[in-house]
Amino acid sequence: MAFAIDSQTAKDLELFSDKPGVQSIFSFFNQTQTFGGKLQLKGLMQSPLDNLEELEARKRIIAFFMENEQPLTINASQMDFIDHYFRLNKTVLKPNAIDGYFQKKFVSQKNKNDQYLIETGIEKLIFLLVALQETLAQTPTVKVPLGLRPYFTLFRNYLENPPIQAMLTSLGPSPRNIKHYRYDHLFREKYRQETQELIHTVYLLDAFKAVAKTANRHQFSLPNYSETTHSSLHVTQLFHPLLEKPIKNSISIEAHQNICFLTGPNMAGKSTFLKSLGLAVYLAHLGFPVPASSMKTPIYKGLTTTINLPDDMGLGHSHFYSEVNRIKDVALKIQQKQQVFVIFDELFRGTNVRDAYEGSLSIVKAFSTISGSTFFISSHILEVAEHLQKSKNIAFRYFEASLKDQQLHYTYRLREGISQERLGMHILKREKVLDILKSLT
Q1: DSSP conformation letters of 96-133
Q2: Is 39 within 8 Å of 332 (Cβ atoms)?
Q3: Range(s) of the domain holding residue 419
Q4: Residue ranges with strand state E in 106-257
Q5: Cα(194)–Cα(89) distance, integer angstroms
Q6: Looking at the predicted structure, is the pLDDT value of residue 228 above 80?
Q7: According to the model, what pLDDT value does residue 437 have?
Q8: Cβ within 8 Å of residue 57, ≥6 positions away
Q9: 3 state SS of 366
Q10: Is 298 helix (H, G, I), strand (E, B) or coil?
């Protein structure tokens, strides 16, 4: 069964966005050179893994591109012409000089554009094959990780087909005066499927190179995985990649703990930290580098976050009812998947204080009995944390804040323990909300 996330989690973590100008994690990684590479990258990012062998293979492929500057230059314009060439539903050029001459000489004005696309597509494809040939000659097989070798083998097998080999030998390293009619049938007829597989693989390498380039530029690191279900989670110097000047924090949850209870005042950094952590868990299950100095994580079967949960006004549901349904969904997912990473930011914010206290306490107690899954829960209700502080399987962390010269100061640093700061009334007074209200009476 594949690693599972839902649309709410994807929105919370800002994985993808269809809105122009809105940055997402996908757009952050999208350093691809081609449209086909962009599609391959999106496919990779929409398909998280929960298998150790597959994750390690993916990780090694990306590590290879992080450590090695590949000589293969992929040109967007070149690949666009190749794509157009294969999409043309036109008769293949006959592979002899006489027919080739008449096909070109007497082509109608209406079909001249198609003729141009065919000829340019052939040229661009030949240049790509020459570049692949040079790349393979400069890439020692012994250094290529096992997961990447099938792709390089596909390139070699294609280039070693006798007609393809003969074509490249005759054209040399700098092809000129290409006689298009000689090669159209090779690409669009004899080796059509093999050529399309080769192009697909080039796009996939474009996607891997984009991930590696992004990771190197922003100092991401490749994650490590624990093979047991009760292993601890360790992340050092975690940060959110979409922030310009992020504050880095570290978190460790030991093997006997399955809950981290997070407290701290508003704007202290809880939500950003939870988004960063959820994102790191997700990227780790893509086999991608993560925004941290190091990470060791169990392999989960799913990820669920509740950070920006909207009211379901269309169904007449309140925020509290939406929260209850969300908790029910999480319970059912755990029942199905067993090992799930769960984030709840401000549990039961949509109801009165008493219900929020009792509901939070009962839910956290219930979560604490579930082995295999990991829960990160933030709350303003300090009394819940105080009631649970003797629980050995709950780790308590908080974001500190303080008042200095009647000004709020946030460090955005994660500390061990339970927050004691109650700054809500100070903010009300500082903003003169009560004074304005009194002036209205």
Answers
A1: SHHHHHHHHHT--GGGHHHHHHHHHHHHHHHHHHHHHH
A2: no
A3: 224-439
A4: 224-226, 233-238, 249-253
A5: 18
A6: no
A7: 66
A8: 145, 146, 147, 287
A9: helix
A10: strand
**What angle is formed at CA 336 by the lines to CA 332 and CA 337, rounded to 5 degrees?**
115
Stretch 67-74: mean pLDDT, rounded? 80
pLDDT at 100: 53
Indicate whether 7 belongs to any domain: no
Give SS3 for 420.
coil
Q: What is the CA radius of gyration of the chain?
A: 28
Q: Do the domain assignments include residue 292?
A: yes
> Are 327 and 258 within 8 A, CB to CB?
no
Do 169 and 285 lie in one domain? The reply is no
pLDDT at 430: 61
| Residue positions counted in the chain | 441
Answer with the one of 218, 248, 274 that is the final residue of a domain.
218
Q: How confident is the model over 132-144, as pLDDT tens digits?
A: 999 998 888 778 8
Phi, psi for residue 322 in degrees, rounded to 5:
-65, -40
**Separation CA 18–CA 23 (nearest Å):** 10
Token reading at 46: 């929409």
DSSP letter at 290 equals: B
Report pLDDT for 109: 46
Residue 123 lies in a domain: yes
- Residue 48 CB contacts under 8 Å (≥ 6 apart), including other chains: 2, 3, 5, 282, 285, 286, 303
> 4-32 burial, b if ≥16 CB within 10 A, otherwise e?
bbeebbbbbbbbeeeeeeeebbbeebbbb
Q: Which of 162, 191, 218 is the last residue of a domain?
A: 218
Phi and psi at 360, nearest 5°, equal -60, -45
Asked whether residue 15 is domain-assigned, the answer is: no
Beta strands 233-238; 224-226: pairing state: unpaired
One-letter amino acid identity for 42?
A: K
